[in-house]
């Protein structure tokens, strides 16, 4: 995203920013930035009807700049399209004030955003991050199993499941090996063609000279077999872009063919060293750290909104190792009070307590893991017990020779 | 009579003349053979008899009947009779589609709609010698060729009681990778003459060429090229053998940790388990940390209560009693902690590669201390105990449930076939079944158990069902086949009681039930429970520690056929996190 112009008052956060989205990921940033009650100005196409003096109605599609006061936004992850609905907020010769309009934000078309109640720290940071063009890591991953493949693209801020391939593969059976091998062959060929269609190698290599790394992960030997199939096909069909891709393919081990095992793949040492500096890898490592602390159960890892707020109140998320993990889903809250609550918490941890704040993308696996924990978690500097206020009535267990309930 | 003819003639407007001819034949009193026909019949009967030889007992009448049917084709008649009177082989259904045969078909299918016409069908071929018997065979043929499958409407439970069938048992072979599970089973099959010397010799030769000669017995089970070249079992291998009393089904599970989903699929079909342990130095210890432990916990949480522990590779420790006792002791301590009951565990020392104490006694003088039975005998004992606890009839009375373990093409005749264990209920040919979650019905065309065709199956058996009237896209591994009247409910969110093996907090998990494998999330920890009474000890805990029992809410990615009372396994990041019992 390019910041074309900005006029933001540092003190009260009033002002506007004019932005130009350049790639799909920028739509995701825009989605996170735009809040209900904000004012958004962008180019729009609107059908305008005019009633002439004689009473005949003429309708016309005209392009005009509209400013709307946002009421809701809708983001399609797959295609990266963002639709922002709202009421027209500035008088216009064609459109009445207060009439509804939905703006479709597009790539390479600038928009101006003015925050309804000022740019807060989280919004400012997001703006800075969105306009940082330096790190643009991108990685394609195929998480596969026998007869199932999930083709995903991992960018700095999102993991997008592009396509899922599911081919029925008959299991090993006495005298029926043929069916298994044939189906596997078919599965590989469909996965490869789907992958190539998604990668769009012909175009990509024309635009940029760097090749995008491809990660194949599976339990067992399927990823390995698929790589050798891919190599074989590339040589057989002399597909030059594909041959060029081969050296940047990594094979890793995952425990299941599902997308959520990506987090486990990306935290494996071999992969981490190649991806070291992506946001994704950092977030994954952080979540892993949180999980291991949680497992130790020494009262230094807490999750859930109430518990974390209480921990912050007690000053446990502060200097010297206190980390607040928060998903950006909370900042997208439609309710403004809700957003303020979380922005307030972030500000407090960062400025008053001196702790570290990590905003995790809800579109990454790490963010999904956090979502399960209530979207917010904290690593404390000192152990706290019973933040959940439950009376721990752990009575002496009756160790009898009875059958367990399970 | 004439009335029937008129009714039938409607469909055959194009060859009315022929039809009338037929009518005349019949009026002549059923003997329409000319002199030539009779002569030809006589010559051919002799030829067929020669072709069949003494081994097949067939009467002249049967031969003539078939000859008439095959238009005096000696070769076809002989093949037909051979197959018919050698019951193990399925009947040849590939009939030459000749004019009269297909007309019978049409007649038969119209007969199926109109019961009145049935008697017409019977009366029709009376012009042929020994017509009545022929009707039977024609009837059978036509039934199989029409898409609708006729049910025999058996009372399967009654049949099962009457049949006095040998008892059946399936067992899963579990244990750490490279502890010799497949080799042990290969040996068992070889010694019981299920596979012949020639095939073993062939495997031995092949194994030697790639420098893995000791793997040749395992290759009996490991058939795919991938498994052979890597030297590990990847998927469950199914095989059968019989003893005097019992028909056993072997489910040879992979030991490698990556293939635990396959092992779960196998264990879910088993009555008891054989745990294979490598007795050689360090191997046992490595296994105990690895899959020996996990497999035990898994089979236990899937309801397998009885274990036969084969302490394998005893030849490498020269049948040391000390080593055997040491292993037994350690395992017993672990297993009782894992909630196995001591009397349900049997330890057997053996050597899979040499075959000692698998089917025959140990020859080695060092093993004099061991006086109890062989592995097969231990298996028999286990089956006896299981049958005493839960007779088949009880679970067979419940509505049908069967988890699909495999979907494949059974051949040209059977384009869609499925296999799996019948958990509850019964099935017979002609039954309509519903596959969930697709909610599509299919008709059972044929049933096979251990590669033999049967008419019906009961709970506990692992049949192959050949289906008709369903598109294969509706059948996926892990789907549940059920009675259309009592379909299994689909759930997306369920509460379950679970025993944690690892720390559990709200997180992404894979939910396993037999072959079913689904993405899901632990959404809520509702409470920690008392292990024995089931009372809630602590509400909304933050984390469930290993060994604790808790009630949790799991949300699945998509709706799946899971019923209350189903046992599931939760796994995350390659290890088994918890075993659960669905509450609804």
TrEMBL record, chain A:
GO cellular component, alphabetical, reads: cytoplasm; Dom34-Hbs1 complex
Q: Where in the cell is it found?
A: Cytoplasm
Instruction: Give the highest taxon in the source lineage.
Output: Eukaryota
**Coiled-coil intervals in this record?**
none
Q: List the Gene3D superfamilies hit by this protein, alphabetically.
A: 3.30.1330.30, eRF1 domain 2, Pelota, domain A
Q: Which UniProt keywords apply?
A: Cell cycle, Cell division, Cytoplasm, Meiosis, Metal-binding, Mitosis
Where would I find the eRF1/Pelota-like N-terminal domain in this sequence? 1-132
Gene Ontology biological process: cell division; meiotic cell cycle; nonfunctional rRNA decay; nuclear-transcribed mRNA catabolic process, no-go decay; nuclear-transcribed mRNA catabolic process, non-stop decay; ribosome disassembly; RNA surveillance; translation
Q: Which cofactor does it need?
A: a divalent metal cation
Is Iron there in the keyword field? no
- Provide the primary localization: cytoplasm
Which molecular-function annotation in GO is an example for this chain? metal ion binding
Stored InterPro entries: eFR1_2_sf (IPR042226), eRF1_2 (IPR005141), eRF1_3 (IPR005142), eRF1_Pelota-like_N (IPR005140), Pelota/DOM34_N (IPR038069), Pelota_N (IPR058547), Ribosomal_eL30-like_sf (IPR029064), TF_pelota (IPR004405)
Do you know which NCBIfam families this protein is assigned to?
pelota
Q: What family is reported? A: Belongs to the eukaryotic release factor 1 family. Pelota subfamily.
What this protein is reported to do is described as:
Component of the Dom34-Hbs1 complex, a complex that recognizes stalled ribosomes and triggers the No-Go Decay (NGD) pathway. In the Dom34-Hbs1 complex, dom34 recognizes ribosomes stalled at the 3' end of an mRNA and engages stalled ribosomes by destabilizing mRNA in the mRNA channel. Following ribosome-binding, the Dom34-Hbs1 complex promotes the disassembly of stalled ribosomes, followed by degradation of damaged mRNAs as part of the NGD pathway.
**What is the name listed in the Swiss-Prot or TrEMBL entry for this protein?**
Protein DOM34 homolog
| Organism, scientific name | Clohesyomyces aquaticus
From TrEMBL, chain B:
GO terms classed as biological process? cytoplasmic translational termination; regulation of translation
Range of residues in the leader sequence: none
Compositional bias (Acidic residues) spans? 12-38
Q: Which UniProt keywords apply?
A: Cytoplasm, Elongation factor, GTP-binding, Hydrolase, Nucleotide-binding, Protein biosynthesis, Translation regulation
User: Cross-referenced CDD domains, in alphabetical order?
Assistant: EF1_alpha, HBS1-like_II
Q: What family name appears in the similarity comment?
A: Belongs to the TRAFAC class translation factor GTPase superfamily. Classic translation factor GTPase family. EF-Tu/EF-1A subfamily.
GO cellular component annotations of the record: cytosol; Dom34-Hbs1 complex
Keyword Protein biosynthesis (UniProt): yes
Assembly and partners? Component of the Dom34-Hbs1 complex, also named Pelota-HBS1L complex, composed of dom34 and hbs1.
Report whether Cytoplasm shows up as a keyword of the record: yes
* Residue span of region Disordered: 1-38, 83-134
Q: Which residues form the Tr-type G domain?
A: 166-392
Quote the protein name from its UniProt record: Elongation factor 1 alpha-like protein
